[in-house]
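ping. complex inputs:
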Amino acid sequence: AQTVTQSQPEMSVQEAETVTLSCTYDTSESDYYLFWYKQPPSRQMILVIRQEAYKQQNATENRFSVNFQKAAKSFSLKISDSQLGDAAMYFCAYRTYGGSQGNLIFGKGTKLSVKP
Amino acid sequence: KAGVTQTPRYLIKTRGQQVTLSCSPISGHRSVSWYQQTPGQGLQFLFEYFSETQRNKGNFPGRFSGRQFSNSRSEMNVSTLELGDSALYLCASSLAGWTGTTNTGELFFGEGSRLTVL
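pong. complex structure:
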């Protein structure tokens, strides 16, 4: 069975600085998708960035980028120029390629605080 | 375009009661998934419905059930409530039920229904 591990329960960053959130996963599959979701306090979860395992190039979305190391089964999220609005719970998630779209396996999450 | 709507947002029940939660997906989305979120267990997949059929089910007891209607709206039901069922129940919708060669899909989540069991 696939598992997703986020080893940092809480992280803190100064506004305008850069922070990296860690995620490792375990799978025997060669094709899959990885995601980072953001859950602000009392608001709905939204997709931050996604990565297809068959793509070697790391995904980037504006200030958010990932470092995908397939052999190491590592998928970290880097947030550059952190803003107060980035404060939230961040969840790393895994989904089987070709499988049910709605079935994601989530990590336990990292709570990110942004200091002004 | 309206987002995923979940009702009720908050509810309090007592042990042994049952509860029904509702989810209206984004217009045009045919897949609805449900997740249970607790501080201890995190986010756990309950089940997914696509075109009124349950496509996938997580590792939860039979007290947890769901259904989907022809308009893609979904309900989940928990019978004989236990204290451990207290959680935030999240609904997510997506366009299609199965991924293809290039369709990674994106889940759109509602704000959740927070259930407290006393």
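The interface with chain B takes residues 33, 37, 42-47, 50, 52, 91, 95, 97-109 of chain A (CB under 8 Å).
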